[in-house]
Design goal:
- The chain has 456 residues and is α/β, with parallel strands linked by helices.
- It folds into three domains: 96 residues, Rossmann fold (3-Layer(aba) Sandwich), CATH 3.40.50; 194 residues, UDP-N-acetylmuramoyl-L-alanine:D-glutamate ligase (3-Layer(aba) Sandwich), CATH 3.40.1190.10; 141 residues, Protein-Tyrosine Phosphatase, Chain A, CATH 3.90.190.20.
- It contains 15 helices and 17 strands.
């Protein structure tokens, strides 16, 4: 029945997909729409060379491409029935303005998934920790499926996490299954147009993020709150009681609220470091209880959990120095959490694309705590970071940490290597976005990993 509804929705309609993405951001929705009988047109400002990987994945489908530029006429009612917008496209785009003036329906890949998904949805959002929390919940539910008392089918994971595109596999998802999603503020902003919220909403923490896209902190918070705003009375919100912002959100959901971590807090055995990961694990255990997964089983799954790439990922030990890839860290709060996860002296690679977030708290922590002896400053923000470090050092009357501005990631690793000694931790935790020098944080982390693995 779901397949029939999907085909009735799209068959014969001309659908414009705005933003394909070089790492396949629009591949899944393009395939979904083409298989549903839509006439799919993909428009992207990038060239066919830049999008070659994504185009190869769609080579078996009849899709029309307008690449290297957007065509104004594609956003008119004469040419298009529906526009599917990549969440990263800014809402003030002139082309989206044309679409609105023409009365076109605008939607997103995640909105379409919420519209047609028959399974219960557990969604995780927050400024930091949402990927790890999502993966922990997935691990617990997959292990819990073997328990006789557990009453759910397969477990699916998606959103911003993982390579599996759930929209393109929608026909395989049943009403007995559970879908675990990581949702960004961009995706949650769009969900307001369909009044969509998950059955179970998990909030990790809130701090300034993506202010280059959101017009203000209030705008960012409003988008995050959409994960709660449209829940049904049977919905459940799993909220972090230690986060001051989230602690005030209980009245937003029409559903039931569950708080984590438990009081008193209990240490959870994990392979991955950091007090922030203790909180992520506590959220995952709270979700496990909702699905009747036994506590012993949930904790066993967490003991076996080895973490995710680019999230305090241990790359190697070389000459007594432990190298960690934390490329996902694009906010000052996430860098501070990474630094706090290790007690020993540290060398740090910091910097990247400006997300319009204040880094003053991080700079103060670097200067005043005394556990970071060297910082390599990289990317668009390196000059500003150098100025702020120098200003803070003078204000505090302190000499550390030492720092250098570098032009490439290779130079950053080389300087970290030169300024490290046995027993230290060398950490890529940039505190900034990657788009000034890399495709995304995964690209940045993979390049870091390759450079570190070649050290000799």
């Amino acid at each position: 029945m779901n397949c029939v509804n999907i085909r009735n929705r799209f068959a014969g309609r001309r659908v414009l997909v705005m933003g394909l993405g070089s790492f396949g951001g629009g591949v899944g929705v393009s395939r979904f729409l083409a298989r549903a009988g839509a006439q799919v047109v993909v428009t992207d400002l990038r060239s066919s060379e830049q999008l070659s990987d994504s185009l190869d994945q769609l080579a078996d489908l009849k899709i029309e491409y307008h690449l290297g530029e957007h065509h104004r006429e594609d956003f008119t009612a004469a040419k298009t029935d529906l526009v599917v917008v990549n969440p990263a496209v800014k809402k003030e785009s002139a082309y989206l303005g044309i679409a609105r003036e023409n009365g076109l329906e605008l939607t997103s890949e995640m909105n379409l998934f919420f519209e047609f998904c028959p399974a219960r949805i557990v969604a995780v959002t927050g400024s930091n920790g949402k990927s790890t929390t999502t993966a922990m919940i997935e691990a617990i539910l997959r292990q819990g499926r073997i328990e006789p008392a557990v009453q759910f089918g397969r477990v699916w994971v998606g959103g911003n996490l993982g390579s599996e595109n759930l929209l393109s596999r929608l026909e395989k998802i049943s009403g007995d299954d559970v879908v675990v999603l990581e949702l960004s503020s961009f995706q949650l902003y769009d969900l307001a147009t369909i009044k969509g919220s998950p059955d179970v909403a998990v909030l990790t923490n809130i701090s300034p993020n993506h202010l280059d896209w959101h017009v203000s902190m209030e705008h960012y918070i409003w988008a995050k709150q959409n994960i709660l705003r449209f829940q049904k009375p049977a919905g459940i919100a799993v909220l972090n009681r230690l986060d001051k912002e989230i602690a005030s959100w209980a009245d937003i959901t029409p559903g039931r609220v569950i708080w984590y971590p438990d009081e008193p807090e209990e240490q959870i055995e994990l392979q991955i470091p950091g007090s922030h990961n203790q909180l992520n694990a506590a959220a995952a255990i709270a979700v496990a209880r909702l699905f009747d997964v036994q506590n012993d089983s949930a904790r066993q799954a967490l003991r076996n959990f080895t973490g995710l790439p680019h999230r305090l990922e241990r790359v190697r030990e070389f000459q007594g120095v432990q190298y960690y890839n934390d490329s996902i860290a694009t906010t000052p709060e996430s860098v501070i959490a990474a630094l706090d996860a290790f007690g020993q002296d540290k060398a740090l690679i910091l910097g990247g694309y400006d997300k319009k977030i204040s880094l003053e708290g991080l700079i103060e922590r670097l200067v005043c705590r005394g556990d970071v002896s060297f910082v390599a400053l990289l990317g668009q923000m390196r000059h500003l970071l150098a100025e702020q470090l120098e200003s803070q050092k003078q204000a505090q009357g302190l000499s550390g940490p030492n720092y250098l501005m570098v032009d490439t990631l290779e130079q950053a690793v080389a300087e970290v290597f030169a300024h490290s000694h046995e027993g230290m931790v060398a950490l890529l935790s940039p505190g900034c976005a990657s788009y000034d020098m890399f495709e995304n944080f995964q690209d940045r982390g993979c390049q870091f990993r390759k450079i570190v693995e070649k050290l000799e």
